[in-house]
Amino acid sequence: MPTQQLVIYLLVYMVPALIIFGIGCMVLAQSPRRLEHKLMVAFSFTYCLLYIEEFIRHLLPLSSSVWMIGIFFYQIRLLTTTILFHFLIHMTKIHKHYRIPFYPYLIYVPIAIVVILTLMNVNVVDDIEFIQTAHRFLIKPII
């Protein structure tokens, strides 16, 4: 891989990841005991992991993309969405109005199910096939 292309990947993926991580650290430094701040740091950290995964995926050969997306990307994306959902429930105080049983543990049950199924080699997320045409890569879902 040419050095110029590596520098572009570093600028596109690692700089935003470091900025997001730095903002998360500043939020946690404000008040580390508040749940809102902990959830925002967890959200920014998982978002930072998505950027790092994309950076690593671009450095690896195309044959590794399916594995990286299936094992890593979908799990982190689900965790990011769940943390954001927990943050929204906590900030709007819905859990106090509707008396959600087993709050907040009930929110994270789908993550445990997906991780267990992934360890058992059962794919519950999309299968993706990567096709290389000339200099472009097309992502084609397998039906």
UniProtKB/TrEMBL annotation:
Keywords: Membrane, Transmembrane, Transmembrane helix. It comes from the Bacteria. The keyword Membrane applies. The chain crosses the membrane at residues 6-29, 66-88, 100-120. This is Histidine kinase N-terminal 7TM region domain-containing protein.
